[in-house]
Every structure is written in C-alpha cells, then in structure tokens.
Amino acid sequence: MISQWQLRAAFAARLSEMYGREVPAYTTLVDVSREVNEDVLRAQGADAERLGSISRVTAERHGAIRVGTPAELAQVARVFGALGMRPVGFYDLREAAASAVPVVSTAFRPVDGEELARNPFRVFTSMLTPADPRFFDADLRARLETFLAGRELFPPELLALADRAEEARELPDADAERFLQLAVSAFELSTEPIDKTWYETLERVSAVAADIGGVRSTHINHLTPRVLDIDELYRRMTERGIEMIDTIQGPPRWKGPDLLLRQTSFRALAEPRALRTPDGQVTSGALRVRFGEVEARGIAVTREGRALYDRLLTLLDQRTAAHPGADRAELAHSLWTEHVPGTERELAAQKLGYFTYHLAPDRPRDGSRPPEALDDLLAQGWVRAEPLVYEDFLPRSAAGIFQSNLSDAGSRDNDQQGAAYDSDWLSGAMDRDVLDPFALYERQQNQSLAQVAAELELHLTTITGAS
C-alpha cells in the first residue's frame, strides 16, 4: 500500500520531471537552486537548516495551476485531497494587481506539522472569475461559460481513484501507479490546436484569462523550487544568460530574521503551440504563459506581524512615490531595519512570529522549580523556540509575479462593481472548508506550549503567550 504522503512525494517528483522536459530552463533553475543551497549549507552549517532540513528544502516544490469554473475547482480539490492536501487561504489577485488578473485563488497543501516535514508540496490554484463585469461583459461571459462547460479537465477514472485515496488515506500499488499516471498527464501541456480567434478575444481582456479559458485543458503553469539565498540565485541565473523578472517580490534582504516569503522568476518563455485559424487551417505559433519561479521561505508571522508587513508595504509605496529616483530595495531595507524586530527572540516576545516550543536538552537539572512565564523559561534555558516556516503565499507577491510575466496589462472597467468572491464562497464551491492559515500556525504553536506545560507540570494558563 502507498500512503498519502508517499503519493504526494511521488506526484511532486514526477511533475517536476515532466515539467523539466517541457521547460528545460526549469531544470537549470533546479540545478542552480541546489548549488546555492549546498554552498549556503557549507557556509552556515546548522544555521542553514533553521527553517527546515536540507532534505526537506531540496525536495520542496510549489506548483501553480489555473482552472475556469467552480466545478473544475471542486475536482482539483478531490485530486489534491488524495495527496493529503487541503485548501488553505483565500487570495484575491483581482485586487492585488494593477494589470488585469481576473482570478481568485487558494493553495492546497498538507496542514499537519509531521506531514509538512515529510513532503511540503503545495499547489497555488487560481480560478477564473467570469462573473466579474470589470473584465467580462455579458456576451463574453456567456460565451466563456459555455466554452468552459464543454470541456473535461480530469477523467472520471482519476477522480474515482482520488476519492478512494482520500477516504482510505492510501492506495494499493497498482492503483497508486495508475493514479499518478493519470494525475501527471492531466497537467501536461496539450498539443491540441488552439482556436486562435477565441484565444485572442480573451487575451485582449487578460493573458491569464486566455491561458485558462482559451484552451480545452489545464497545465502546470510553473513549478517552484525553494532556495536558501534567493539573491545569490538571482545573480547566478542572470550570469547564465537567463532573463529574470526585474525584482524579487516580498520582504527585502536585511540582517534580521527572514519573514514570510520572497519570490522571483525567469520570464515567461515563447513556447510553440498549434493554432487553428478561422478557415480551419492549423498554423504554428508561440504563446508566453509559463515561467520559472523560485522562492525563499521565512518565518510565519502572526496576525499582528502580517498587519505590520502590510503597513510597511504601504509606507514603502508612499516613500517610493515621494522619491522616484530612490532605490526601492534600499528604501525597503531602511523601513525593515526601523520597524521590524532584529531577532527571533524579539519576534516571539512581541507576538509577531509563530514558534514551536520544546524542552531544552541542557535545561537546569538541579531540582529547581521552573518559572511560570514563557519569557523566563526561554531566558533561563528551560525551553527553546523553533520558528515555524511560512507555508503560504502573499497575494501582492503572487500578482506581482503574474504581472511581471505579462506582455500586456489587459483591460478592466473600474466603473463596474466587482463580483463578490470570498473564502466562504470558495468553500461552498468546493464543498470543503478553506482553512485559515493563522489558525493552523496557532494550533501548532499552542500544541507545543501544552506539551511543554505538561512536561514541566505547569498550568498552560500560567504561560504567557499561549493565546
């Protein structure tokens, strides 16, 4: 029998092999990421594994896919449910991008700490929003919804196997192999000719809309390795002659703790695609829809930490606008140095970051009674804190990556009222709850605090910071 986490690891590995064949520059990205990680590990030793073992970091991937309808999204949820991945977080990229990016998104990932340590594969999944009149008028919406209703992304056999795997949390070897074959092939780039006129109609609204609704299949849009030094990777990729986007999205490089998520990518490549013209002829063309993203993950922040991050982004925008000739990265570095705690200890003390707490191996053994406050337990060497890795995404960064790889801003009518989509709507569409990432981190943190309290025979309520 093949367990869910083994299915997840095998699926991630096979998807990576397939994507490397389709997009050779992705293989280069993986190779450079591995080289950088090995160099960081040699230079920093154990500190390099502060946010995950090197085996986890090396295996780690996040994928991105795009679907067109709630029904398709519900089917995706079943496929990833087979792999022990649940929808976490709601991201509205319509509001996060200046360009036309008419999608709302969630991320499917493991949620248990042990499962994340085994294989933290996650897939950022975006769904088109045809009901939003800022992008689609009534006629185009009707045509788009008719087109989407007429396609099948996932064969019934795949969905049946997925449901069995999710219910039993495993599959027999032969069924597991068949599931993996069907699942990987569902995300391959189709060779079926694309209706050129229909694709271009949607492309005038948004290249993202065309990539979703202009074809009869879905595909992996990018597959992202994790790197321990994203600035060094950016430099090395550029040295190899690979064109990168202009910036690294997310928090700046600075001397303090790495927070949240930093992302960059190489630019979308012109890939040959077969196009069908109105007279029925099939011609050879090229589309730019897929790119190579890479990420560096930091510490998960609390709601207060996230509010601080969002406030600093607003301040950064204001300072950049006020000083158009200034270097944005330098302005960001200055803001972070001014406002963000410079150590993990301060992050924990100010309740800005999430940590798990564990008894220190070298804690006092002289029979003394441990103190009852968490700060004192840490200061006196009874307990150590380990930062929780940020497992999720940032809507503005995701939109920035999308936007950086678009050749045209598309069109949107801001005089129209946008259609309402939120986490509850998405939960209903999939018939499964979209989980709150903050609640997941809090649960991990509080479980560790409860364990510490039990081992030291303290009441949990006496430990500050337990809430």
TrEMBL record:
The keyword Oxidoreductase applies. It comes from the Bacteria. It holds the Pfam family HGLS. Its EC number is 1.13.11.93. Its cofactor is Fe(2+). InterPro entries: HGLS, YdcJ_bac-like. It is an enzyme of class 1 (oxidoreductase). GO terms for molecular function: dioxygenase activity. Keywords: Dioxygenase, Iron, Oxidoreductase. Belongs to the 2-oxoadipate dioxygenase/decarboxylase family. This is 2-oxoadipate dioxygenase/decarboxylase.
